[in-house]
Structure formats: structure tokens, C-alpha cells
Automatic annotation (TrEMBL), chain A:
This is CbtB-domain containing protein. Pfam families: CbtB. Keywords: Membrane, Transmembrane, Transmembrane helix. The keyword Transmembrane helix applies. It comes from the Bacteria. It comes from Pseudotabrizicola sediminis. The chain crosses the membrane at residues 20-38.
From TrEMBL, chain B:
This is Cobalt transporter CbtA. It comes from the Bacteria. Keywords: Membrane, Transmembrane, Transmembrane helix. The chain crosses the membrane at residues 5-27, 61-84, 96-115, 135-155, 167-186, 206-227. The keyword GTP-binding does not apply.
Length: 68, 242
């Protein structure tokens, strides 16, 4: 490790048994949230109509998601 | 501990999203308005009926909810990836680790995908190709994150045998080669309507990248500070406090 990143503080990893359930469930849920912000009622739709699409319109364009 | 990190990641993500909203409102919205003005002029002033949501709502609370929602979600995922990699990938402390992860996340989730499929303002992009464009965009996003993960693992493996300099050069070359190959392999999209001002397109795309810069700067640096207090608080002695 380069001196700038060297450490005299213990960098102890969190136990995998504790992290993994959080990681699996959390990433699944949060990916769903990103889908709702970025893509719902665009190429595919879970909820009918275009309210979510129109409400998220500017955020989608500006975050770089294909909007319409 | 993971739960505490997740919660903090999402809170820092909300703050990052709010800052990104201020940036987006100042730099991005004028370009969106110019693009919509072009769209209206091309369609001869005939609008597609009453919009379900007013422009004011789209550019105000809609944009804010979109960016804060995105910030909270990526902040949460960021915290979970941090929890998985902290102390495992390298012996870097919390603040350094979060900054490195934030840089990697910006490059792989924003910069690289947008170099292949850049952000498009309203009026750019054909309605009938939205399905293909969405698939390609998310495919590029996933590929780019995989390229980054492979690169980090290669760098980690080579670091001890070859030293940081060589390991970084080799891993960086691998990342460049993998992303360049995926750029070649995936089809290009160019649906510019004739007469659209290229300056508006450029400014729009730069402000889109700027939004991601603001998001990841605040997430990478802010989360690092918060995680340090949580994970290393008792061990860290600030020079001023000694």
C-alpha cells in the first residue's frame, strides 16, 4: 500500500454473515426504486397511466435515462 | 452495523440529491426549456394535448423527488457495497475507501454509460425506439459496472506482486480495453432531429454529467466522513484533539 493510504488504524471487515442478507435485500429494493425513478411507464410499466413518467420527466432526462 | 451504514448512506444520498437538484435547476433546466421550445416550434405550436403534469411541477417538485429518490437509492447501494468491501479489498480506512468507491461508482455508473449513450433532452430521440434505447442503456450500465468490478479485482491481485504503479497501469488498460470493446459491440444511437441546436445538446449533456459529479462527490466524501465516525471513531485521533 502506498504511504498516503497506509493505516495505523485497524481496518476490520464486517462479518460477511451480517452484511450479506442486508446487501441482497437492500440492493434488490433499491434497484426497484431506481427503476421507478428512471424507467417506469417508459419502455415498460407496472402501474397504468403516465403520471409517474410525467412527474419524473425532468429528472429522467437530466440523469441520462432514456425517457421517451 | 450494516443497517446503521445503510441508513447513513441513504441520508447522505438524500443530501446529495438535494444538492444535485440545485445544480440541475440552475444548469439543466434552461436547456430542457430550450429543447421543449424547439419541440413546440417544430410541431407548429400544436401541443400534444394538456400535459398530465405541468412544466412547473416537472421542473420543481418532480425533478427534486426524482433526484432525491435516485440519491437515496444509490446512496443505500453505495453503503452496502462499502460494507461488503471495507477491510476486504485493501487496507484503506473508511474515508479513503468511500472516496475510492465513489470515484469508481461515478466512472462506472455515469461517465462510461453516458459516453456511449449520452443523456438526451426532450425532442431528441424517437418515441418508437424507446424500448430498444432503454434496453441498450441498462445493458451498457451493467456492462460498465462489471468492467469496473473486474478491473478492481485485477488491480488487487497484482498489487502485491507488481507494486501499485504497474498494477494500476495494467488494471487501467484492462478497463479501457473492456469498455472500448463493449462500445464497439453495442449499436450506436443517433436520433437528432434536423435543426436542433448542437449547443443546447452539448450544454444539456454536460449538465447531466455535472449532476452525477455533484451526487458522487457528496456521497463519496460525505459518506466517508460519516462511516469513519461509526467504524473507526474510537481509534481515530485528530491532530487538533491530541
Amino acid at each position: 500500500m502506498t504511504p498516503a493510504l497506509a493505516t495505523d488504524v485497524a481496518v476490520a471487515p464486517l462479518p460477511a454473515r451480517e452484511v450479506l442478507p442486508w446487501a441482497l435485500f437492500g440492493i434488490l429494493m433499491l434497484a426497484f426504486a431506481i427503476y421507478f425513478v428512471g424507467a417506469e411507464q417508459g419502455a415498460s410499466a407496472v402501474v397504468q397511466g403516465d403520471m409517474i413518467h410525467e412527474f419524473m420527466h425532468d429528472g429522467r432526462h437530466l440523469l441520462g435515462f432514456p425517457c421517451h | 452495523m450494516t443497517g446503521a451504514l445503510l441508513l447513513r448512506g441513504m441520508i447522505v444520498g438524500v443530501i446529495a440529491g438535494l444538492c444535485a437538484y440545485v445544480f440541475a435547476f440552475i444548469f439543466g433546466e434552461p436547456q430542457v426549456d430550450l429543447a421543449i421550445a424547439f419541440q413546440t416550434a417544430v410541431s407548429g405550436g400544436a401541443d400534444e394535448g394538456l400535459p398530465a403534469v405541468s412544466r412547473q411541477t416537472q421542473a420543481g417538485i418532480g425533478l427534486a423527488v426524482g433526484l432525491v429518490g435516485y440519491g437515496a437509492a444509490v446512496g443505500g447501494i453505495f453503503a452496502l457495497v462499502f460494507a461488503l468491501t471495507y477491510g476486504r479489498l485493501c487496507a484503506v480506512r473508511a474515508r479513503g475507501m468511500a472516496a475510492l468507491l465513489g470515484l469508481a461508482a461515478f466512472v462506472s455508473t455515469a461517465l462510461v454509460p453516458q459516453l456511449k449513450y449520452p443523456a438526451n433532452p426532450p425532442a431528441v430521440g424517437l418515441a418508437e425506439t424507446i424500448a430498444a434505447r432503454t434496453t441498450l442503456f441498462f445493458l451498457m450500465l451493467v456492462l460498465s459496472v462489471i468492467c469496473m468490478a473486474v478491473t478492481v479485482l485485477i488491480a488487487r491481485r497484482l498489487w502485491r506482486e507488481r507494486g501499485g504503479w504497474s498494477a494500476s497501469i495494467i488494471a487501467g488498460t484492462v478497463f479501457f480495453g473492456l469498455t472500448a470493446t463493449s462500445f464497439l459491440a453495442l449499436p450506436s444511437v443517433n436520433e437528432m432531429p434536423p435543426g436542433f441546436d448542437p449547443a443546447v445538446l452539448w450544454n444539456f449533456r454536460v449538465s447531466s454529467l455535472g449532476i452525477h459529479v455533484v451526487l458522487w462527490l457528496i456521497l463519496g466524501l460525505g459518506f466517508g466522513a460519516v462511516a469513519e465516525r461509526l467504524l473507526e471513531g474510537r481509534q481515530v485521533r485528530r491532530p487538533a484533539a491530541v
